[in-house]
Amino acid sequence: MALIKRLDHIIVAVRDRQQWIPTIQRVLALEPGRMLEGAGEGASGFGNAEFAIGDGFLGVVEPAGEASQLHRFLDRSGDGFYAMSIDVGDVPAATASFEATGARFQSANALSLTWLGPRGTHGVLYQVIGGMLLGPGTNPRYRGVSTMTIVVDDLDRAVSDYATTFGFGPPTPVTNERFGYRGAVLSIEGSTLDDTVVLARPLADDTPTGRHLADRGEGIFSFGITVDDLPGELARLASIDVPVEVDELPDATRAHIDPAALKGLRVELVAPNGS
After folding, report:
1. Sheet containing strand 46-53, strands side by side
2. β-bridge partners, 257
3. What CA–CA distances, in Å, run from 265 to 120, 212, 234, 268?
4. How far is the C-alpha of 114 from the C-alpha of 5, rounded, in Å?
5. In 3-state terms, the chain is what percent helix, strand and coil (to 5)?
């Protein structure tokens, strides 16, 4: 069984969170809950806004002070996905596993928080925690963060690295024509929302995933939220003129919010038991 128990929350780094809050309020119907001002010191300094989503949340962080390492990220990549927080249940056991496999990590608190660096995870910075529940959030249809798609340069290597680092079993192959990739779906067994991590190798340079790889390198391409009453949520988005594209699959429905509506973020809305 994989070391990851569930996807907890997604973290987005921005230069000015106040410019993002109205967008998230309007498009996702989420209101900020806890907000931290000037948390941490030096390189770890940040401010944030947290938007509860079912059993997870969306965290928007900005640098606090000139020494914050978030400045380097933003100078390199601009506003966008920064990290994924994963619930491993037992953080000390997870860090012991990372040590055994040679994964690079840094513990902020040996008992409750570890950061797993992006070099061995194909561009994804992971916040490793034991769960951080905030409550259901202000959009009652949203049940939680349930999927993440990662653009990778070498699919076979990425599958092998994720098996070594996280203990994932054999993947399910997938081809996605909309975003132009051949991929591998890694299932998080036992997760309430059937959480998945998708490793995606672009089929061509002129596809959305191909352009992402060229512009930003390997890393998070999109995240998905499991949604009860997806037709109702699509109707809400239509009522505020937010463009959405819908995939009809044999066993589920997925909708893709136009990234222009969310300042470039790619967000999927997934019907329960979607894959």
Report:
1. 35-39, 46-53, 56-63, 6-13, 80-87, 125-129, 113-116, 105-109
2. 244, 267
3. 24, 12, 18, 10
4. 15
5. 25, 35, 35
Torsion of CA 146, 106, 154, 263, to 10 degrees: 50
Q: What is the DSSP letter of 123?
A: S
pTM of the complete model: 0.94
Residue written as token pair 């190798």: 201
Beta carbons of 193 and 268 less than 8 angstroms apart = no
pLDDT digits (tens, 9 = 90+) for 149-189: 999 999 999 999 999 999 999 999 999 999 999 999 999 99
Nearest-5° angle of CA 275, CA 83, CA 142? 45
Q: Which residues make Cβ contacts (< 8 Å) with residue 235, sequence separation at least 6?
A: none
